[in-house]
Fold this sequence. Notes:
The protein is rod-shaped. By secondary structure, it is mainly beta. It folds into three domains: 53-140, Immunoglobulin-like, CATH 2.60.40; 147-241, Immunoglobulin-like, CATH 2.60.40.1220; 253-391, Beta Barrel (L,D-transpeptidase catalytic domain-like). The chain has helices at 17-48, 253-263, 375-382, and strands at residues 53-55, 67-71, 85-87, 92-97, 102-107, 116-121, 124-125, 131-132, 135-140, 147-151, 156-159, 167-171, 178-185, 190-194, 200-205, 214-223, 232-241, 272-277, 282-287, 290-298, 309-312, 316-322, 327-334, 342-345, 369-371, 388-391. Helices cover 13% and strands 36% of the residues. It has a nine-stranded mixed sheet with strand order 21-26-18-19-20-25-24-23-22. A four-stranded antiparallel sheet has the order 1-2-5-4, with no helix packed on it. A four-stranded antiparallel sheet has the order 10-12-15-14, with no helix packed on it. The protein is built from three helices and 26 strands.
Amino acid sequence: xxxxxxxxxxxxxxxxxxxxxxxxxxxxxxxxxxxxxxxxxxxxxxxxxxxxxxxxxxxxxxxxxxxxxxxxxxxxxxxxxxxxxxxxxxxxxxxxxxxxxxxxxxxxxxxxxxxxxxxxxxxxxxxxxxxxxxxxxxxxxxxxxxxxxxxxxxxxxxxxxxxxxxxxxxxxxxxxxxxxxxxxxxxxxxxxxxxxxxxxxxxxxxxxxxxxxxxxxxxxxxxxxxxxxxxxxxxxxxxxxxxxxxxxxxxxxxxxxxxxxxxxxxxxxxxxxxxxxxxxxxxxxxxxxxxxxxxxxxxxxxxxxxxxxxxxxxxxxxxxxxxxxxxxxxxxxxxxxxxxxxxxxxxxxxxxxxxxxxxxxxxxxxxxxxxxxxxxxxxxxxxxxxxxxxxx
Length: 392
């Protein structure tokens, strides 16, 4: 009898086909997902590490102010070396701070006022090697001071310009750091004074404006560091001066004074008195009815006429100060009891500018009677408090 055939106690385990398919599909899915993840990561990397810029200030940049530019990511500064520029073309100095995340830009000279600039930052790399595309930022510089007030008003008529009523120009801000230029046509040399803040300027011609003439005045400004060709006109105005009054008195002052000495008759026969003729603009002093001397004066202009009547001197001061007009009135003698008007020498500003003698013979004051240098002191020294004054 043949021995029984040996039977294998561990028969081969066959893996079902469906399980093999499942494994293959799972592996393929993982490979595909891994590839998609890597592709997404590569696509998202630049966006995650992208850099933006922010200007700390974009308007009213001062001429020598530093621009502060912040990056959202630290950058590799070497990528930008000598490549950052400004339009309009301006020489700049560039430095980095805050671990190359802050850019500081300074003009080698200055930013021009009233200019719109573009700061152009070329393509570069951040610290994560992310690409930074070229970026542009805009900024604007400060504006020139603007004229907010001008006196006399534009196209004003019958204007008289003198030390109590100068041409006055007011600005919206301080003009410190700027140079101003005032021109007038027909040409006349001008002198001026300004307040400490440099927001108000008072202008006076060094000569006398022609009566009955049309004048144009222009205001120019430039930044102090700019050359003269950079002056920019910022204002223009015009006015007409007062026409000469009709009169029979001599226009030549020497002849007019001789007329006064010949034809002025005393109105008070006892003691001292001061005679003021508004028509001839002449002051004459009398003692006991005798004419001692005559002087040219300037009395109140139209609308602010010197009052007529009989008065007397109430007080005297060798150098009175006018709070109303911010000037000195040498050899002051009050004629009105309240001191609203009086006799004094040509006034002067604290800075030293003195009203010109060219206004003598013309009514331009605010009511006072102005005398020239020399005559004012002689009349002041001669008159007493209580001396009669007759104005007609």
